[in-house]
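Page 42, continued from yesterday. The earlier attempt failed because a stray header line got pasted into the input along with the sequence. Redoing it now with the clean sequence only.
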Amino acid sequence: MREITSLCVYCGSSSGSHPEYTEAAEAFGARLAKEGIALVYGGGKVGLMGTVADATLAAGGRVIGVIPRQLVEKEVAHTGLSELQVVETMHQRKTRMYEIADAFVALPGGFGTMDEMFEMLTWAQLGLHSYPCAFLDVRGFYRGLSASMDHMVAEGFVKQNQREQVWFGHDIDQLFDWMKHYESTYTPKWITGTSVDSID
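This time it went through. C-alpha cells are written below.
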C-alpha cells in the first residue's frame, strides 16, 4: 500500500459558477487533514485554492503553499499557512510542488490547472515519476476531458494502460482508496516503424 504524506492540489483561483465546487474543495481539504496528509498547493488565498487551504487548516491539517514572488506582490498570497515558499517563476513553482508531493489531484479549474496537471501526466508518461494523478470530477466538470483522453487512445496517441493510470470520479472515499493502492505501470512512449519511416 502506497504511503502518501503530502498531496498536491491544482484548482481554480476562482470559485466557479456553482456552490458544489466550493463544497467539494472544503470536503477534500478536511479529508486531507483527517488522513494526516499535508496539502501542497499554489499558495493563493482566493477561489478554490483558498477554500481547500482554509478547509485543511480548519480541520487541523498542514498546508504548504508555493507561490511566485510576483503574485505575493499582488497580495494574493495566503498569509495563514503552515509554510509559504516563495519562488521566482511559475516554472520553479511547478517544479517545487512536484518535489514535495507524493500525489497529484486536480479539482475544477481553468488553463493553469490544466497546464500543471498535464505536465505531471506527461512526466509520468516519460517515467520521471510514479505518483498517482487524479481528477475530482465535480458536477461532471471533467467528463469531456475523460472522453478526450479515451479518444487519444483510440487515435493511437496514448497507450491504454497509460490512460488507465489516470483516475476520474466524484467520490472522495473512492479517490483516496485508489491512491492508497495505486501501482504505476510505466510504459515508455513508443516510436513506431511508421513514425521513423516518415522522417526524411
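Notes: Residues 19-35 form the longest helix (17 residues).
Reminder to self: strip header lines before submitting.
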